[in-house]
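Anyone up for a design puzzle?
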């Protein structure tokens, strides 16, 4: 436990902050990262995304590679300041010279059809599967390399799906979703993942900042996602999860269809196919017709990328 941790344990937030500030002034990259994290989360100080971005930049300048990755994500996504795709790409190229993780991201990005500002080019052909609610399939939405990258990136990070037990407060297995998964919040939304999120936004006609973190879900044999609706009951219409965008990352499995029981519709996409469906009615209410399920996988392993999209942007600059 560090000295600042001891001060925090005693409730001396100001003392811990002063200690970290002195360490930053002395050139301590990890202290700068810690302060940047405080400013990001708002746990000990007022949340300030612009100040957090600046402090992560300072930490990266002092040599912290974790902070450097976060800076690339913030610059690409416009967190704590303006988005600057050319700069994010330049930072990624610099990192790729010595970092194989960054090099893999760069290879993927350079294979994409992107404008100078990182906007996806081309069109996104789709076929309607339902009008009420809207459900559309996007064949070949992600390339095989993009699917493989997401699976490989997610696999070491997968955690069982858990929920908080309302009685004990402990994390327990999710009774609805029996898969494993990992999310990529904006600190982990590297330029490659951000570019894929922009493609999802373009295909769905939404603001990229309206999307919740991209999730990668892993379903082993017998695992499933029971019937549910992705919309949130009782929230304001501006906060509603109006859309879900799924991308199937592989197809060498049996079972695992995405089923809409009230529509008599079942979808099993090929690797790379996207599936867009609307969860809420025009007034933001939960649409019972959009109840869906991930049926049990009976052979092999299913991976799917999932992004919930809100009615308005979530990140305030």
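Challenge accepted. My sequence:
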């Amino acid at each position: 436990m560090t000295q600042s941790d001891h001060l925090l344990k005693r409730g001396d937030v100001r003392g811990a902050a002063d200690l970290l500030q002195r360490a930053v002034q002395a050139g301590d990259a990890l202290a700068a990262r810690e302060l940047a994290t405080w400013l990001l989360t708002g746990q000990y100080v007022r949340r300030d995304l612009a100040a957090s971005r600046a402090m992560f930049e300072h930490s990266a300048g002092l040599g912290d590679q974790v902070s450097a990755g976060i800076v690339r994500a913030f610059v690409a996504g416009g967190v704590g300041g303006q988005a600057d795709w050319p700069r994010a790409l330049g930072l990624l190229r610099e990192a790729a010279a010595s970092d194989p993780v960054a090099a893999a991201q760069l290879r993927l990005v350079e294979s994409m059809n992107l404008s100078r500002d990182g906007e996806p080019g081309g069109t996104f052909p789709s076929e309607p599967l339902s009008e009420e609610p809207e459900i559309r399939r996007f064949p070949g939405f992600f390339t095989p390399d993009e699917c493989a990258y997401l699976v490989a990136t997610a696999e070491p990070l997968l955690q069982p799906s858990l929920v908080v037990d309302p009685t004990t407060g402990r994390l327990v297995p999710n009774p609805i979703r029996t898969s494993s998964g990992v999310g990529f919040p904006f600190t982990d939304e590297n330029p490659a993942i951000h570019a894929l999120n922009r493609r999802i936004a373009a295909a769905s006609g939404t603001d990229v900042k309206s999307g919740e973190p991209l999730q990668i879900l892993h379903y082993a044999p017998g695992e499933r996602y029971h019937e549910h609706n992705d919309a949130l009951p009782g929230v304001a219409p501006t906060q509603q999860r109006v859309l879900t965008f799924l991308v199937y990352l592989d197809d060498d499995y049996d079972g695992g269809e995405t089923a809409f029981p009230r529509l008599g519709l079942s979808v099993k996409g090929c690797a790379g196919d996207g599936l867009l469906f609307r969860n809420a009615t025009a007034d933001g209410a939960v649409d019972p017709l959009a109840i869906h399920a991930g049926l049990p996988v009976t052979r092999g392993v299913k991976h799917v990328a999932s992004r919930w999209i809100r009615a308005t942007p979530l990140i305030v600059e």
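A detail worth pointing out: The longest strand covers residues 302-310.
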